[in-house]
Design a protein that fits this description.
Layout (H helix, E strand, L loop, with lengths): L7 E6 L2 E8 L8 E9 L5 E3 L7 H42 L3 H35 L3
Antiparallel strand pairs: 1-2, 2-3, 3-4
């Protein structure tokens, strides 16, 4: 069983993780986890726990985890947007074929404002990208 466990365990938190060193090489053969650091995915900070000094290996593992976690979160963000597009299409079908007048009255203004806000942001961002492309030297 000891061979199957990773050397480090990352307890996911909102901005990163608490990092634990996993130890099974003790007299009782119990799994012990010693907190060694806090890793922040947003800013890349790694704070050792207490007075602990992190080894180069520990820092490398934590830094690698931050990079991997950042990639996972970025992929999830894009996937969430694709799901939102799917959901908007389902809302369109619902509004066209199933929604009652009362249901439409309940959601129309909120949906229109949200869609207007989204459209405004998307158009502005696209214009900014096009201006950057036009301004780029050939």
């Amino acid at each position: 069983m000891a061979g199957d466990l990773p050397e480090f365990y990352f307890r996911i938190r909102e901005n990163g993780a608490a990092v634990f060193k996993v130890d099974t090489e003790n007299r009782q053969r119990r799994i012990e986890m010693e907190e060694i650091a806090i890793a922040n995915v947003r800013n890349g900070n790694i704070k050792p726990h207490g007075d602990r000094k992190l080894s180069a290996h520990e820092l490398a593992v934590i830094t690698g985890w931050i990079a991997q976690r950042s990639a996972v979160l970025a992929a999830r963000d894009v996937d969430d947007i694709h799901r939102a597009v799917d959901h908007l299409n389902l809302v369109t079908a619902w509004a066209q074929s199933k929604a009652s007048d009362a249901q439409l009255d309940e959601v129309t203004d909120t949906l229109l404002l949200a869609m207007h806000d989204l459209r405004t942001v998307l158009v502005r961002k696209k214009a900014e990208r096009l201006m950057k492309t036009d301004a780029a030297p050939d």
